[in-house]
UniProtKB/TrEMBL annotation:
InterPro entries: DUF2292. The lineage of its organism: Bacteria, Pseudomonadati, Verrucomicrobiota, Verrucomicrobiia, Verrucomicrobiales. This is DUF2292 domain-containing protein. It holds the Pfam family DUF2292.
Length: 62
């Protein structure tokens, strides 16, 4: 599964705007992960991977 990346290097954002991006990505996920990439002490990239889980046959869902 390919990660969803939001890259817009020409856009200048406030230094702490990455936190709002992380919050948004986490709130949209049911199963998955959010990865934060840091270079020289600065957040440079945020990626999210969404997974779809299927119930296993013969197992109860409780």
């Amino acid at each position: 599964m390919k990660p969803k990346t939001d890259a817009s290097p020409s856009t200048t954002l406030p230094a702490d705007s990455w936190l709002e991006v992380v919050r948004e990505k986490v709130s949209r996920l049911q199963f998955g992960s959010v990865q934060v990439t840091v270079h020289d002490g600065r957040v440079t990239q945020v990626e999210s991977i969404e997974r779809t889980r299927f119930p296993q046959p013969g197992r109860s869902q409780g």
